[in-house]
Design a protein that fits this description.
The protein is an alpha/beta fold. 39% of the residues lie in helices and 12% in strands. The strands form three sheets. The chain has a seven-stranded mixed sheet with strand order 2-8-7-6-5-3-4, with helices on both faces. It has a three-stranded antiparallel sheet with strand order 9-12-11.
Length: 400
Amino acid sequence: MSFLSATLSRVKPSPTIAISARAREMKAAGHDVIALSAGEPDFDTPDNIKVAAKAAIDAGQTKYTDPDGTPELKSAISAKFQRENELDYSEAQISIGTGGKQILYNGLMATLNPGDEVVIPAPYWVSYPDMVLLAGGTPVIATTTLESGFKLSAEQLEAAITPRTKWIIFNSPGNPSGAGYSWEELKALTDVLMRHPHVWVMTDDMYEHLAYDGFEFCTPAQVEPALYERTLTINGVSKAHAMTGWRIGYAGGPEPLIAAMRKIQSQSTSCPCTISQWAAVEALEGPQDHIIANNAVFKRRRDLVVSRLNAITGITCPTPEGAFYVYPSIAGLIGRTSAGGTKITDDEAFATALLDETGVAVVFGAAFGLSPNFRISYATADAALEAACARIQTFCNNLT
């Protein structure tokens, strides 16, 4: 009998974390590495947020809080949902966790039973299917295409739903593609969900504020208010406020679901970090100027990377509406051989050879459920992006 849980055999480690770790090891060993694998803004947390955290420490705000967060942060989140998303959530309908990942996991653990299905559009964030598996459910992958802008159609959603479907996980703007759904596109999906009252919506809005070219963000319960009672609206401060390491995510949803999630959290992490919670209050209630400034930088970087990649024969890179990723196709490179002798049989072989031969770390598309592609995070300095794109171009030009 194995000592380790059989459940653990159903999941794999995060590929993005694994690739980032390998890039760090290579860099520590003296290799010239440009890591474009981590989904993390390179901007520092704004000073006003750091000051609020220091003030909380000085005020002795260093004790346990309620399992799912302080009243002060819940109040700030409630105001944010009303102000920005036209959603009314009372404090009893709000859960705060150690990052958005814990909120997603708590929601799945609180609701899934063996045989329950969760629809996940591909390409997807690498953790979605594994979290479903850990919670005992079955991921049902609905695959999109580059031609559709990596967006799920109403027909695809309808075809993926069965009597066993419990959730759809929805992410816009999305990781890894940056694809953002317009009001009309999202309304087509919510119309399908209205015909299937047993299906709930878990919407990951983490990249809400990272939107470009006039794209206007919207969230499912906002587009279709009748879905409010079966929607868990998830967000956090990590991306928009450059607070990844502070680990604060949150959600609004029906009170019975939030209570079940609170029960799980009370037996796992007890509560989110107190200092981080006070920092998050300032992030939500304080000045928002940094979002506009950061977005201007992200847009410039996006345009740089898209133009450079599309100049490479064999690569096709669509322009995303938001987030800070591009998800180019390498369909035109499959079957060729690198200068180092690696046969490019798939996107994993491409990413591995690219790192070994040029020192550029990207994440292969199979990790996100859609090949042959790779993901670049452009949340890094312009000079690094220029150098990385030049290395990718040289690598591709030398394929035979």
